[in-house]
Amino acid sequence: MVYTSQTSLKFDPLQVFFGRNVTITCGPPPANLNLSSGWTAEWTLNGTGIPGDKLHVLAQQNGMATLTVSEVFFTDSGFYVCTLKNNNIAIIQNGVIQVTTAQQQLQQLLVQSQNLNITSLPTFLKLLSYTTTTFNQSVVTSPANINATVEILKNIANLNIPINETLMTDVLLVAGVLTTDAAKESWNSLNNESAQNISVTSNSPPAKSVSSDLLHSLENITKILTNDSFNIETPSIMLNKTILTDNFTADFAFSNSSVGVVIPVANGGHSSIAVLSFASMDNVLPPRDITNSSVNVINGRVVLVYSNGSVNNVSFTFAVKNDTLGNPKCVFWNFSLFNNIGGWDNKGCVLVRSTNKAVTCNCNHLTSFSILMSPYSINSLALDYITYIGVSISMASLVICLIIEAVIWKKIRRNNTSYLRHVSIVNIALSLLIADIWFIIGAAISDADEINQPACNAATFFIHFFYLALFFWMLASGLLLLYRTVNVFDGGLSKTSLLVFGFTLGYGAPLVIVIITIAVTAPKKEYIQETGACWLNWYQSKALLAFVIPALVIVVINLMILLVVIFKMLRRRSMGDAVQAAERHVLVVIARTLAFLTPFFGLTWGLGVGTMTNPDNEGILIAFSFFNSLQGFFILVFGTLLDKKVRSEITIRSQSSRTGTRSTSAGISSTLGFFRNWRRGRDGYNVSSAASGGAHSGVSI
């Protein structure tokens, strides 16, 4: 005889989730059937028998049969039938399992949240809390699940149903799951997506920011708390709800940080104060400030404060989480910034006191507050003086260098090597001068109250390009030295060919590098650094390597060239003077220039790497600024003034300009010619008296 039970199989839990466990209970049989203890149980799923295994454990106890599925998969969905048998009697119970994922459950809850009322809200919040806490990993590792959960909280906030302590506990448990460290990567993805929608136009439609929506929903829910006092402590969020009859003082301490809040009694008295302190809201909110910079760090707890009374003075003492950071800013989350995407603003908040361990702020309004601190906080007057005085000296030196080159330009055409050397020096000086000019323009742009991003991009482009041109022209000079030393001096490539090669290397290679850098980093808005001077980004895209690597590689190549050239020149000198003295002089000048400038530039940008790896070291910053700002002065000294023939020509020009008669000029020229011959003899140069006894126009520079 077969009986079909009117009672369905019992499932624990009622909602069966993917990856979780479930226990299915069959029986007990009705007492009037008098089944003896010899009964057995058979289980089927969709008509197929279920044998016992590691994932499906069968058991019988107290007249009931149980099937425990230790890890539910989608294949466990379907129609279950349990048959209890004893001799000729069989009792059948059945039931259906529908396996649900966390995402499916959240989507169902999202739809349900649009039709809640005061009766259904408690049960709904209990299920939402259970879903998010039980399947927290599935929730927080999926931006889509986080977005759905935030939308549910928004709908709850819009219900305007009073929220008591029990309901608020469930809300805070849900919000706490969303702020955990495991959710940080998902929030980074959501915030990056929001940042791409930041528009500079005021007539654009409001943008969406999930992180702002979460905080705004919690603020709105706080506004509808019931009018009584209570405290709620969850692992990630603390709430203190108080009827304010006297000054409010509270400390909220988590495992590794804390925040203290002091609020004077509100005007009119008996107002309610609600304070929420978040252990890890910095995982949710980006450190984006009013200048759209994200270099700073949220270095204290985020605190949400609401009062239904008038409060215009609130004090916070934040325990800093990282005491190596500096330059604290007292800020609040301004939901209207960046077309309603939101960001940190400091209006109405002032810094009262700052120590290595705590920062005290005072604000004249209520909302959500925290502190932003910089990963480096060097603010040295000496550094500013060194930079700007040094740049001024550098630019003046470069202008003098170019003037000198212009004055002697006609005297350098008789010797190809000399001519090419001076072409290199002119372009090195010109590149650095233009780079310094754009540096000043970039500093003016970055110092403005509102940074013009396109202008800053343009300044960075030209600074990058001309700094690279400086190094590639140094490389061209080194290769010229190597070419003229290794090859026969009076043969080989023509002057025109060498000029084409020099300009292609000097300006073509930097242009290619700069364009590639922009193409890779600009679409991600990671071309320039987010704060400070207009310059290549380091923290996000490492775009600065597009300058540092080529520069340091050129330094190494030039040092290797110098070693080869010195070896070759020493061998030739020991074997006898096989080249013209003028040619040898030019090569010695090039070698000496590279010998001084290459280590100098290498040291300068070696310190530049140090400023990136250790940005809070004031000594490295000052040293880098000193060497970097005086590059022009060293180019003038080692590239131009230390060349005795350049000095000689300058002296001749100077003397000629002060004499009015031809005879006087000739006399001075003869005297200087004798002096030059005497100096050349001391230096080991073998030149005939005829080479220097004529007009000064025959000097090779």
TrEMBL record:
<dbReference type="InterPro" id="IPR017981">
    <property type="entry name" value="GPCR_2-like_7TM"/>
</dbReference>
<feature type="transmembrane region" description="Helical">
    <location>
        <begin position="498"/>
        <end position="523"/>
    </location>
</feature>
<dbReference type="InterPro" id="IPR051587">
    <property type="entry name" value="Adhesion_GPCR"/>
</dbReference>
<dbReference type="InterPro" id="IPR007110">
    <property type="entry name" value="Ig-like_dom"/>
</dbReference>
<dbReference type="GO" id="GO:0007166">
    <property type="term" value="P:cell surface receptor signaling pathway"/>
</dbReference>
<protein>
    <recommendedName>
        <fullName>G-protein coupled receptors family 2 profile 2 domain-containing protein</fullName>
    </recommendedName>
</protein>
<feature type="transmembrane region" description="Helical">
    <location>
        <begin position="543"/>
        <end position="566"/>
    </location>
</feature>
<feature type="transmembrane region" description="Helical">
    <location>
        <begin position="419"/>
        <end position="441"/>
    </location>
</feature>
<feature type="domain" description="Ig-like">
    <location>
        <begin position="19"/>
        <end position="98"/>
    </location>
</feature>
<dbReference type="InterPro" id="IPR036179">
    <property type="entry name" value="Ig-like_dom_sf"/>
</dbReference>
<feature type="transmembrane region" description="Helical">
    <location>
        <begin position="586"/>
        <end position="608"/>
    </location>
</feature>
<dbReference type="InterPro" id="IPR046338">
    <property type="entry name" value="GAIN_dom_sf"/>
</dbReference>
<dbReference type="Pfam" id="PF00002">
    <property type="entry name" value="7tm_2"/>
</dbReference>
<feature type="domain" description="G-protein coupled receptors family 2 profile 2">
    <location>
        <begin position="383"/>
        <end position="643"/>
    </location>
</feature>
<dbReference type="InterPro" id="IPR057244">
    <property type="entry name" value="GAIN_B"/>
</dbReference>
<dbReference type="GO" id="GO:0004930">
    <property type="term" value="F:G protein-coupled receptor activity"/>
</dbReference>
<dbReference type="InterPro" id="IPR000203">
    <property type="entry name" value="GPS"/>
</dbReference>
<dbReference type="GO" id="GO:0007189">
    <property type="term" value="P:adenylate cyclase-activating G protein-coupled receptor signaling pathway"/>
</dbReference>
<keyword id="KW-0325">Glycoprotein</keyword>
<dbReference type="Pfam" id="PF01825">
    <property type="entry name" value="GPS"/>
</dbReference>
<feature type="transmembrane region" description="Helical">
    <location>
        <begin position="385"/>
        <end position="407"/>
    </location>
</feature>
<feature type="domain" description="GAIN-B">
    <location>
        <begin position="228"/>
        <end position="379"/>
    </location>
</feature>
<keyword id="KW-0812">Transmembrane</keyword>
<comment type="similarity">
    <text>Belongs to the G-protein coupled receptor 2 family. Adhesion G-protein coupled receptor (ADGR) subfamily.</text>
</comment>
<feature type="transmembrane region" description="Helical">
    <location>
        <begin position="461"/>
        <end position="486"/>
    </location>
</feature>
<keyword id="KW-1133">Transmembrane helix</keyword>
<feature type="transmembrane region" description="Helical">
    <location>
        <begin position="620"/>
        <end position="642"/>
    </location>
</feature>
<keyword id="KW-0472">Membrane</keyword>
<dbReference type="GO" id="GO:0016020">
    <property type="term" value="C:membrane"/>
</dbReference>
<dbReference type="InterPro" id="IPR000832">
    <property type="entry name" value="GPCR_2_secretin-like"/>
</dbReference>
<keyword id="KW-1015">Disulfide bond</keyword>
<dbReference type="InterPro" id="IPR013783">
    <property type="entry name" value="Ig-like_fold"/>
</dbReference>
